[in-house]
Amino acid sequence: MIRAAGGSEVGTRYRENYDVWHLAEDPLLAVVADGMGDGPGSAMAGRTAVDVFVAGAAPDPARLREAVALAQRRVGDFGRRLGGLAGCTLTGLVADGTTFWLTQIGDSRVYRLRGRQLELLTTDHTMAWLGAVHGWYAFDSPEAAAARYQLTRYIGHGDEPAPDVLNVAALPGDVYLLCTDGIAEQVPFAALAEILGRGAAPADQVRRLLAAANAAGGKDNATAIVIAVD
């Protein structure tokens, strides 16, 4: 049995919400996207990427890559017509019996709480992530802060990069969190673990996550989907 809920907050930085999310429980399909910037290219990219992914997603790695490739073409074509930036991240989860297929491009994330251990299952496609891995600069340096906004892969990239696709086992008691960087960058890791580990209903956990992002300043659109495996 799966219980799930999602929600989103605009925050204080933007006048509009450029995050997009979708959640269907039977069969389970969850997606979050985060538009880049605050213009028409951002709004179009997020909405288009989610709609295309939902229409084409299936518990099959080839189908998931095809859905992202089609989103790449649609968003890329719009960006060329616009003559400006059109791009977004996309992170999806599709159920396949007792396993989940994850699709990742950009810096939105999937976390999993299993027992008392919270893990980040996805990799950020950013220069900040590469810098942290290779020790290019201190994590709390101005260079690292700037590098968080330098995505190496995203929907709308001119080279149409492919997503990461991975399969994970879903066990009873697992709690999964899909979120945009408005959650990941504002809610500390320990707070994520505490909120997800309380055993509350997913809707209550989503409300607490969004409240924590707003309490931290609400400096970005924030979106969260929580999935509990009973």
Q: What's the helix and strand layout?
A:
Blueprint: E1 2-9, E2 19-25, E3 28-35, H1 40-56, H2 61-82, E4 88-96, E5 99-105, E6 109-114, E7 117-120, H3 127-134, H4 142-147, E8 164-169, E9 175-179, H5 181-184, H6 189-196, H7 202-215, E10 222-229
Antiparallel strand pairs: 1-10, 2-3, 3-4, 4-5, 5-8, 6-7, 6-9, 9-10
Helix pairs in contact: 1-2
Defining key terms:
single chain; alpha+beta; five-stranded antiparallel sheet; 10 strands; 230 residues; Phosphatase 2c, domain 1
Could you describe the 3D structure shown?
The protein has 230 residues and is α+β, with helices and mostly antiparallel strands. The protein has helices spanning 40-56, 61-82, 127-134, 142-147, 181-184, 189-196, 202-215, and strands spanning 2-9, 19-25, 28-35, 88-96, 99-105, 109-114, 117-120, 164-169, 175-179, 222-229. The protein has a single domain (2-229), classed as Phosphatase 2c, domain 1 (4-Layer Sandwich), CATH 3.60.40.10. The chain is 34% helix and 30% strand. The protein has a five-stranded antiparallel sheet. A five-stranded antiparallel sheet has the order 2-3-4-5-8. The longest helix has 22 residues, at 61-82. The termini are close together. The relative contact order is 0.21. The model has no long low-confidence stretch (mean pLDDT 95).
Number of helices: 7
Mean pLDDT: 95
Give the low-pLDDT segments.
none
Trace the largest sheet across and list its strands: 1-10-9-6-7
The CATH topology is given as: Phosphatase 2c, domain 1
Main structural class: alpha+beta
As for the number of domains, it is: 1
Q: How do the helices and strands follow one another from N- to C-terminus?
A: EEEHHEEEEHHEEHHHE
Largest sheet: 5 strands, antiparallel
CATH class: Alpha Beta
